[in-house]
From TrEMBL:
The lineage of its organism: Bacteria, Pseudomonadati, Pseudomonadota, Betaproteobacteria, Burkholderiales. InterPro entries: AAA+_ATPase (IPR003593), ABC_transporter-like_ATP-bd (IPR003439), ABC_transporter-like_CS (IPR017871), BCAA_Transport_ATP-bd_LivF (IPR052156), P-loop_NTPase (IPR027417). This is ABC transporter ATP-binding protein. Belongs to the ABC transporter superfamily. GO terms for molecular function: ATP binding. It holds the Pfam family ABC_tran. SUPFAM superfamilies: P-loop containing nucleoside triphosphate hydrolases. Residues 7-240 form the ABC transporter domain. Keywords: Amino-acid transport, ATP-binding, Cell membrane, Membrane, Nucleotide-binding, Transport. CDD domains: ABC_TM1139_LivF_branched (cd03224).
């Protein structure tokens, strides 16, 4: 019998006031898997991720992490269960240094001093620009550098599930490549990732499986390679004529 998914989103609805954003959305993420959620603006993909993280309370349905219901729990409770977040817009602490921001990611495992020191060096090796700026206030970094910092902070968490919201948004192609180089490394190391992304081409290259949302509904799901070859996906998201 196959093991149950690490994360199971089961037929959730979500509202912002009187406006319904999600309609019966279901998805699953197995341990060691990368799953992408694709869609255009207002498709519901970020609301799905925020529902997992406890930032939005579903009005119907269930969200299970390791078989335990987490829908409606506070974000701190969800994070405490082994989830890390790389939010849209980075959300670094601008007055704190790069080094201090990274250490915040490791706070739940703060007693593992030797392991944290090794992980910090791994982050600085992966992102040399952060190493050069480790004493700088995070608010002085470029957008691409802040995205690297947000990823590094999640790396220090050593989470069982990393939820990433629009990592390529607003970045130059050079920074997108740098960010995804690290995500491909995480995948190779077996990190479980739930990724929300508008850049469908690179998201499907990274993912094992994907879901496509439109107007709050899941309209397609399947293996990432199969979806990348689907004419409807190519036309809507990959620029095919």
């Amino acid at each position: 019998m196959a093991e149950p998914p690490l994360l199971q989103v089961d037929a959730i609805d979500a509202h912002y006031g009187a406006v319904q954003a999600l309609y019966g959305v279901s998805l699953a993420v197995r341990a060691g898997e990368v799953v992408s959620v694709l869609g255009g603006n207002a498709s519901g993909k970020s609301t799905t991720l925020k529902s997992v993280l406890g930032l939005v309370r579903p009005t119907r349905g269930r969200i299970l992490l390791d078989g335990h219901e987490i829908q409606g729990r506070a974000p701190a409770d969800v994070i405490g269960r082994g989830v890390a977040s790389v939010p849209e817009g980075r959300r670094v602490f601008p007055e704190m240094s790069v080094h201090e921001n990274l250490l915040l990611g490791a706070y739940p495992r703060r007693h593992e001093k030797a392991a944290i020191a090794r992980d910090l060096e791994d982050v600085f090796a992966a992102f040399p620009r952060l190493a050069e700026r480790r004493r700088q206030p995070a608010g002085t970094l470029s957008g691409g550098e802040q995205q690297m910092l947000a990823l590094g902070r999640a790396w220090l968490r050593r989470a069982r599930l990393v939820c990433i919201d629009e990592p390529s948004m607003g970045l130059s192609p050079r920074f997108v490549d740098a960010v995804y180089e690290v995500l491909f490394r995480w995948k190779a190391e077996g990190q479980t990732i739930l990724l929300v992304e508008q850049n469908a081409r690179i998201a499907l290259e990274l993912a094992d499986r994907a879901y496509v949302l439109q107007h709050g509904h899941v309209v397609l799901e399947g293996g990432a390679a199969d979806l990348a070859a689907d004419p409807a996906v190519q036309k809507a998201y990959l620029g095919a004529a």
